[in-house]
Design brief:
7-stranded mixed β-sheet; alpha/beta; about 325 residues; 10 helices; single chain
Length: about 325
């Protein structure tokens, strides 16, 4: 992150614990406290599978000892509300491929194809909101227009950084209308709700971004990518919320953006927030699972489904209320007074 310290607007990197957020009523991540609490539970294996699977898992000859703790089973409805829990056969396949790729020290593209994409796709396809969200491969995307990318104090634009996958919102009646009204930014090739104009997602707002790395990549290699990407997303959201149809309502508080870095088997949660002076703060929470273990794979799936739940129930509402270029009449007809 040292290369980002001299960026105009500012970029900061912090490590954060759940206790930091709980004990500080004004913490920048307070709005996602419930998400952090649940990720913390899942990262410790708590409630990652419903109690209806307890007997089968504990009696299974290959993983019975992995599920010998009572706290791993959710007796409430929380786990089921997030979506279907994958079968042991689905999880075993992911674990087997992960271990093979670790042994072979496969390169990043191979990890993407065989491990990271299948994990993200399985989580979202089995999510409660599978029909409302999509996971998209955006490895060919770039920040567009370039003006959204951060700038060094010298005035030089930082090299455009991209991520690999994203959970996006499928079009709703509101976003369809808003997209029809949307005008492209100067030097942008097309209209877009996002910090990129890749045609597969211009009308599908990015909710959760996922950066992936091979198991033998440097530990912090993905940090500049997610930091610059999040900074550009904040710039785009600020442009949307301060458009002509919103200028009389005052500045809108931008949401915290969930980010994930998958490095080999390991999946870690990050978040980005905007500081009081407009700086982007990248927060590292902690690893929430590893797909080279059976229980760890269930932790990863549960957490990704949790982020899908946040995307649909929190981010979609915020985006539709604050970031769409709608006329007062259109807002009223859609229920956004």
């Amino acid at each position: 992150m040292s290369g980002l310290k001299n960026m105009q607007g500012g970029m900061e990197y912090e490590e954060v614990s759940l206790e930091d957020v709980i004990n500080n009523e004004n913490h920048p991540l307070k709005e996602i406290r419930t998400v952090l609490e649940t990720i913390d539970d899942f990262s410790q294996g708590a409630g990652v599978v419903p109690s209806s699977m307890k007997s089968d898992l504990q009696q299974h000859p290959r993983c019975g000892r992995d599920f010998r703790f009572e706290h791993q089973f959710d007796a409430s409805s929380r786990r089921d509300m997030l979506g279907r829990t994958p079968t042991l056969a689905e999880i075993e396949r992911l674990r087997s491929i992960t271990k093979e790729y670790e042994l072979d020290q496969e390169h990043e593209a191979a990890w993407n194809c065989a491990v990271h994409w299948p994990v993200a796709e399985l989580a979202l396809a089995s999510s409660t909101y599978a029909d409302r969200l999509r996971v998209k491969n955006i490895t060919t995307a770039k920040i567009q227009p370039p003006s959204l990318a951060p700038t060094k104090e010298s005035g030089e634009k930082l090299k455009s950084k991209i991520v690999d996958f994203a959970f996006v919102l499928r079009p709703s009646q509101a976003t369809k209308q808003g997209f029809r009204n949307l005008e492209p930014l100067p030097n942008a090739p097309s209209e877009s709700f996002n910090q990129t104009c890749i045609n597969t997602i211009v009308d599908k707002p990015i909710a959760v971004s996922i950066e992936t790395k091979s198991s033998n990549s440097a530990a912090d290699e993905g940090l500049p990518q997610v930091a610059i990407w999040a900074h550009a997303q904040f710039a785009k959201l600020r442009q949307l919320t301060t458009s002509a149809r919103h200028k009389d309502s005052g500045p809108v508080k931008l949401p915290v953006l969930p980010l994930v870095i998958a490095q080999g088997a390991s999946w870690t949660f990050f978040a980005a927030s905007q500081g009081l002076s407009g700086e982007t703060i990248l927060w590292r929470f902690h690893e929430f699972g590893k797909t080279d273990k059976i229980v760890g794979s269930y932790q990863v799936i549960a957490t990704l489904q949790l982020l899908a739940d946040w995307a649909e129930n929190q981010y979609r509402r915020w985006f539709e209320e604050n970031a769409l270029p709608l006329t007062p009449e259109q807002r009223g007809s859609l229920g956004y007074a």
